[in-house]
Structure formats: C-alpha cells, structure tokens
C-alpha cells in the first residue's frame, strides 16, 4: 500500500454523509445463485466457504434448489433490475453504465471489477441487493469488494464507494405497503368466502435469521453502547419498517371503509442455519404460525420485509414451507411480493445513486423511520466480522477502495461538460 492510499480518507461530511462526487459507473452487487443442477453444489461451496455450516444443512438446502431445476430466480431478477435501472438512468439523461457482479456466482465481483478497470472505469458507486445493516447484508459486501481490489491489484486504481443501506427508503417500503394491503384484502375475502367473515388475521414480517452475535454487532460501531432497545440495529430497522408499513396499511383500509382498527403484526425469522447450539434470532416463522393458530388466528399475510428480490429463501422457506404449515393449520395464506423490479423500487435506486453524484444531485434523503437515513460511510468496525477482519471499502476506517488519482483519468461515463475534469474533495 502506498502512502497516498493509506492517508486518503473518505471525504465524509456530518453523520456519515459523503460529499457528492463524480462517478463513471454503477456496480450492482448481489448474492448470486445457481442457474442449473450442475451449479448447485459449487454454488453452495462458494457460499459456505469458511462459514462453519454443517454438511447436513448443505445437503438439505441443495434439495430446495434441486426441486426448482437447480435454478434460483435471483440472477434473472438481477438481469431485469439492471435493465430497469439502466433505462431509468438514461431517461434522466444520466450516462452511467450499470455493471453487475455477484459475491457467490458468475458474474463474480473480481472479474467485473477487472473488466471495469480495463474498460476505463476509475470510480464506481456500488448498490447492493441488500437493504438492512448486518454482517451478511453490509460488511460482507464491503469486504468482498476490498478483497477483490486487493487480489486483482486494483486497489488505488479503481475506487468503489457504496450507497447507504436503504431499508427505510420510501421506494423500497412502498411496494411492501401496496402488497400488504392487497394481501390483507385477499385473505379477508377468502375468509368471507369460507363463511367466516371477521375472523382475526395477522401480518407476519419475515426476514433472514442471523446469529445473535451478528445481530448485536449490526450497524454498531466498535465500542459503542447498545443504543437500540432491541440490542440490534438489524432488529430495530425491521421493527421500525414493519410499523411504518402497518401505519400506512391501516390508513388505507380505513379509507376503504373498514373500521380503523390496527391490524396485529409481528416480526419473525426464517432460513436459520449454523450449528444448533449457536443462538440465532427467533421466533422461526413456522413456530410463530403454530402459536398464532393456537390463539385463534384464521389468516396470515406474510411479508418478506427483509428481502429485496425473489430468491430461493423466498420460494422455499415462504412459498413452500410456510405455506404448507398454513395448510396444515387451516390458515388462509398470502405471500406479498418482494420489491424486485417494481418501478418504485427502480426509481428509488436511481434516487439513491443521485444522492451521491455531483451531477444530477438529489440533496434530500428520504427515510420512513426515525433510524434513517442510514450512513453513506459505515462507522469504524460496524457489523463486525468475528472470523477475522478483512479489508473493507466504504467505511470511515477503510484502508482500501479510496482513490489515489481521484478519477481524473476516467475515460468512460463522464458527462461531456460536467465532471470529466473531476477534482479532489468536491
Ligand atoms: C441476512 C441474510 C440475507 C439477506 C440479505 C441479502 O440478501 O444479502 C441473506 C440472503 C441470501 N442468502 C442466500 C443463500 C444462502 N445463505 C446461506 C447462509 C446464510 N445466510 C445468512 C444471512 C443472510 N442471507 C447467514 C447468516 C448464513 C449463515 C452462513 C454465514 O454466516 O454466512 C446459505 C448457506 C446454506 C444455508 O445455511 O442456508 C445459502 C445458500 C441467498 C441466495 C439464495 C438464492 O440462491 O436464491 C440470499 C439472497
Ligand atoms: Fe443467506
């Protein structure tokens, strides 16, 4: 590492907000998924490398993929999202190409970064298909870019920044509001048709379970007191978002002439893995369904609040397993869509990009909860990696990913009149 690199700090203003800059490309970073039966095992090996997942769990998860032809919907979703985002940017007159790279399957992040550099890119802005704060959804992406830059020798040549975690951006939340209102209408209609109108229904917000230790470190800077009542920014973000969705949904059904009662809801977890003795966030969605049925609930609307797009965990854990649990318990069931390629979500991604660009800048940072808007630049040590720190980009303490030449030699993506001559620290 050169002196200039180690002393380049991300130009952060207040509250982790970064000065708008000139970028020459967008990096859409995602998880990746298999695209056929032959991909399943190699993909699972990529995901679990060094993560201590028991073999039995891998075997079990491989069946979820096998049952779907070995194909996860996530890559197709991302191709459509990339196309949608490119169209949205170009409709705004913004000539930023959208490059796609995955953590666990082709196109892999290191190859995408290598190709970007060879094509003349010098400063990318990353947007991930992951909205909340925790190791898996934030730092792991930052580390994978950091490692890729180090391994390809591109650190100091290709800069990569990252947009804020966008869990409470209105364009991410609004598709859930629409979906939850529709879901409640469907489930209520089903109960009416069954001759049991006014049966109690319940909304379940579902997200990925994570180890308790990761939950406690989520979004929390090193040494910082636990200032969230729930001890976890990951949990707090989901609860605040669930409350924001329900406030709007109840207002909508009041408009639709229903009595303005608050619909009961709760946050539940899915897709637990890891060793049984390690505590993870609970309750599991299937246990919660049993309990609700025991309390006399007759219908549920399941909202995949923790997920940006359809993938195997949505198809299997919700549409297969949770649905079967509901059938067994005699509960009416509806699963709300993920934001996926909803136009409001695509518009939001373009807005999130423009929050950070010197050209077409959007100064306003909308957030639907009191927790946001989240930080552009992660605070030191947040979302800790307990398996040994790796170089990570886009943190106040990052030692990789910043630019030494500050993009002055960009050969692509520059608007002809603005920013082609970008200078330091605008
Ligand atoms: C918080 C979170 C998100 C949401 C945020 C985000 O979207 O990024 C997420 C998304 C995803 N997780 C995915 C797949 C998997 N996750 C696994 C394992 C794990 N996930 C974890 C957390 C999360 N995961 C954790 C703590 C583990 C344990 C191992 C470890 O500590 O790292 C395993 C291993 C087998 C198993 O244990 O299930 C697989 C196959 C796919 C792709 C699915 C497809 O192919 O369609 C997606 C989008
Ligand atoms: Fe996962």
Automatic annotation (TrEMBL):
This protein's record includes keyword Metal-binding: yes
Binding of Fe(2+), residues: 208, 313
Recorded metabolic or biological pathway in which this protein acts: Porphyrin-containing compound metabolism; protoheme biosynthesis
InterPro entries, A to Z: Ferrochelatase, Ferrochelatase_C, Ferrochelatase_N, Trimer_LpxA-like_sf
Main EC class the enzyme belongs to: lyase
Catalytic function, reaction form: Fe-coproporphyrin III + 2 H(+) = coproporphyrin III + Fe(2+)
Keyword entries, A-Z: Cytoplasm, Heme biosynthesis, Iron, Lyase, Metal-binding, Porphyrin biosynthesis
Top-rank lineage group of the source organism: Bacteria
GO CC terms: cytoplasm
Its EC number(s): 4.99.1.9
Pfam families tied to this protein: Ferrochelatase (PF00762)
Location of region: Disordered: 405-426
Signal peptide: none
Principal localisation: cytoplasm
Record's function text: Involved in coproporphyrin-dependent heme b biosynthesis. Catalyzes the insertion of ferrous iron into coproporphyrin III to form Fe-coproporphyrin III.
Family, as annotated: Belongs to the ferrochelatase family.
Protein's recorded name: Coproporphyrin III ferrochelatase
Origin species: Arthrobacter terrae
């Amino acid at each position: 590492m050169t002196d200039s690199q180690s002393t380049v700090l991300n130009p952060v203003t207040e509250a982790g907000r970064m000065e708008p800059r000139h970028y020459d490309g967008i990096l859409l970073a995602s998880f990746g998924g298999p695209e056929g039966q032959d991909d399943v095992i190699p993909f699972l090996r990529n995901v679990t490398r060094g993560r201590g997942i028991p073999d039995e769990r891998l075997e079990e998860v491989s069946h979820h993929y096998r049952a779907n032809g070995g194909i996860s919907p996530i890559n197709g979703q991302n191709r459509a999202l990339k196309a949608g985002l490119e169209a949205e940017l170009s409709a705004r007159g913004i000539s930023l190409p959208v490059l796609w790279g995955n953590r666990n399957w082709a196109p892999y992040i290191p190859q995408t970064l290598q190709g970007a550099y060879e094509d003349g890119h010098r400063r990318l802005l990353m947007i991930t298909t992951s909205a909340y704060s925790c190791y898996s959804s934030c730092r792991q992406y930052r580390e994978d870019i950091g490692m890729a830059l180090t391994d390809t020798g591109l650190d100091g040549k290709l800069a990569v920044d990252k947009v804020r975690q966008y869990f409470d951006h209105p364009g991410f939340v609004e598709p859930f509001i629409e979906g939850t209102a529709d879901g409640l209408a469907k489930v209520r209609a089903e109960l009416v048709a069954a001759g049991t109108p006014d049966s109690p229904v319940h909304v379940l917000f579902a997200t990925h379970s994570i180890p308790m230790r990761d939950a406690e470190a989520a979004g929390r800077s090193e040494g910082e007191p636990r200032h969230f009542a729930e001890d976890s920014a990951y949990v707090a973000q989901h609860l605040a978002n669930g409350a924001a969705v329900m406030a709007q949904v109840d207002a909508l059904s009041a408009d639709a002439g229903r009595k303005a009662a608050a619909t009961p809801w709760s946050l539940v977890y899915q897709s637990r893995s890891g060793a049984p003795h390690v505590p993870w966030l609970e309750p599991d969605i299937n246990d919660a369904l049993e309990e609700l049925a025991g309390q006399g609930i007759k219908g549920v609307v399941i909202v995949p609040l923790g997920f940006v797009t359809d993938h195997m965990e949505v198809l299997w854990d919700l549409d297969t397993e949770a649905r079967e649990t509901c059938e067994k318990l005699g509960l009416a069931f509806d699963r709300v869509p993920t934001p996926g390629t909803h136009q409001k979500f695509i518009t939001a991604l373009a807005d999130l990009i423009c929050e950070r660009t010197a050209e077409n800048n959007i100064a306003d940072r909308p957030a639907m909860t009191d927790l946001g808007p989240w930080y552009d630049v992660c605070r030191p040590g947040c979302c800790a990696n307990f398996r040994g720190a790796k170089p990570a980009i886009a943190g106040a303490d990052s030692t990789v990913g910043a630019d030494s030449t500050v993009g002055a030699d960009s050969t692509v993506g520059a608007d002809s009149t603005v920013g082609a001559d970008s200078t330091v620290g605008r």
